[in-house]
Amino acid sequence: MNFASDNVTGAAPEILAAIEAGNGGDLMPYGNDDVTKAAEAKVAKLFETDADVFFLATGTASNALALSAGTPPGGVIFCHTGAHIFDTEGGAPEFFSGAAKLLTIAGDDGKFTAEDLQAAIAAAQPGNVHHAQPATVSISQATEAGTLYGLDEIKAISKVCRTNNLKLHMDGARFSNAVATMGCSAADMTWKVGVDVLSFGATKNGALTAEAVVLFDADMAKDFGYRRKRGGHLFSKMRFLSVQWDAYVTGDLWLKNAAHANAMAKRMAKGLESVPGADITQPAEANIVFPKLPAKVIAGLKADGFLFYERGGEHVIRLVTSFATTEIDVDGFIEAAKKHAAP
């Protein structure tokens, strides 16, 4: 059983069926087809506004190109110290933004506050010719700690962005999990609280390879098509990304898959609470659990063949559930942990 990531799973049956169904006939390339235009409109409709939607294939490209749309060469991007764009994307945000400077902000549970952000902006000394100039703020929803920003928290951060003339980007690799937990709308969590651009992930939640950049700021969208092309993500056979997105938002598959993954994470966290010596170090608000376990339990689980990352501190592991995780998978892990914790 592999709990290392929600990337370890295959694609959802609905996604595979959509790809097969979309394989017939001849369609114009590079997104100049009715299938792509319809899918873009369907995704935009989720947000209840005239958003501009662009399909890409990877989360790294989605984040890097989205950030480049709001960050001039040499500008500053503020993010959390544990942000994916800072430590796990190979310098892509810096590259596509023309040598942008990422400045990190510490904060508990994978988040920073509006006050933290304002202090970081002041420390960057806007207007000082000797310093890189602040341009963009990026938050992750859900965070790398598996926690969520509340709507009021995002709104407060957005207010700081507006006061300082900065753009607000949301890394939504697990956006669906966040919406499913909070029970709000996609609009409530984005432009209605001041988000300018969203990297909307689908691959972790059942797609084969499909991400999207959703731009709520029309000025940022003006040249994004060129950025996508230059970044190598204007697919000639774009329909194969588009049909995935069509299937993803049809019948709320994006929410159903995420809700299931979240439920499995809660089941895991609750079950591990009964393991002697275990401690759940972060609230399991999405589909990630960070339990601290005795060393012998971790060793025993590894010997049993369970896969996971040791991340988050000494004797802390990260467990990620997905749309494909079953109750049997979760209960099997819990029972194995109890066995290895026994005297």
Describe the structure.
This protein is α/β, with parallel strands linked by helices and 343 residues long. It has 2 domains: 14-251, Aspartate Aminotransferase, domain 2, CATH 3.40.640.10; 253-341, Alpha-Beta Complex (Aspartate Aminotransferase, domain 1). 40% of the residues lie in helices and 15% in strands. It is built from 14 helices and 12 strands. It has helices at 13-21, 34-46, 59-68, 84-87, 92-96, 114-123, 151-163, 175-182, 218-221, 224-230, 239-249, 253-272, 295-303, 327-341; strands spanning 52-56, 76-80, 101-105, 134-140, 167-172, 197-201, 211-215, 279-280, 288-289, 291-292, 309-310, 317-320. A 7-stranded mixed β-sheet has the order 1-7-6-5-4-2-3, with helices on both faces. A 3-stranded antiparallel β-sheet has the order 9-12-11, with helices on one face. Helix 8 links the parallel strand 5 and strand 6. The radius of gyration is 20 Å and the shape is globular.
Short summary:
The protein folds into two domains: 14-251, Aspartate Aminotransferase, domain 2; 253-341, Aspartate Aminotransferase, domain 1, CATH 3.90.1150.10. 40% of the residues lie in helices and 15% in strands. It has helices at 13-21, 34-46, 59-68, 84-87, 92-96, 114-123, 151-163, 175-182, 218-221, 224-230, 239-249, 253-272, 295-303, 327-341, and strands spanning 52-56, 76-80, 101-105, 134-140, 167-172, 197-201, 211-215, 279-280, 288-289, 291-292, 309-310, 317-320.
